[in-house]
Specification:
By secondary structure, this protein is of the alpha+beta class. It has 3 helices and 7 strands; from the N terminus they run αβββββββαα. Bound molecules: nickel (II) ion.
């Protein structure tokens, strides 16, 4: 396994639509394993392939590492096939939008269809944090970040701060 570098906004690769995987082969499994290790190290509860610069429809999730009953989830070609009318609000963050958080409204419950790490077709009913997380990660596959769900004013403020932080970091690295 290997740790992969995580892209941060603004980055054009985070705005691209990812391609479906033809099948879950060894290469896809390797990507899933590397993504999981990268997510745990960050640490985070979800990661989508475009966040590590791979434009494939692959996500990994683990909303509770202590809860060994669910464990990590690996999803290829995930698709929301059912969503509740009822909404829920969660304060979201993202490894690609470091140190910024915002309330996002999404359907409270969703059913997701996907291929698991063995390439087997699965369907999972999600609620609570898992429902939010799976929708957030699938958004990444369509080039959508959580900040795209909030006001343009707040989004642009966050993007400006991220750019400024990046420039400062580059300057520090150049001085070192
Ligand atoms: Ni994210």
């Amino acid at each position: 396994m290997a740790l992969l570098p995580i892209l941060t906004a603004p980055d054009p690769r985070l705005k691209k639509k990812s391609d479906a995987v033809a099948s879950v082969d060894d290469e896809t499994r390797q990507l899933m394993d590397d993504m999981l290790e990268t997510m745990y190290a960050a640490p985070g509860i979800g990661l989508a392939a475009p966040q590590v610069g791979v434009l494939k429809r692959v996500i990994v999730l683990d909303i509770d590492r202590e809860d060994t009953k669910t464990g990590p989830l690996f999803m290829a070609n995930p698709e929301i096939v059912e969503a509740s009318d009822e909404d829920a609000v969660y304060e979201e963050g993202c490894l690609s939008v470091p140190e910024h958080y915002s309330d996002v409204v999404r359907p409270a419950r969703v059913t997701v269809r996907y291929l698991d790490r063995d390439g087997k077709r699965q369907e999972l009913a999600c609620e609570g944090l898992l429902a939010t997380c799976v929708q957030h990660e699938i958004d990444h596959l369509d080039g959508i970040l959580f900040i795209d769900h909030i006001s343009a004013l707040k989004r642009n403020m966050i993007l400006r701060k991220l750019l400024k932080a990046r420039k400062e970091k580059e300057r520090e690295e150049a001085d070192a």
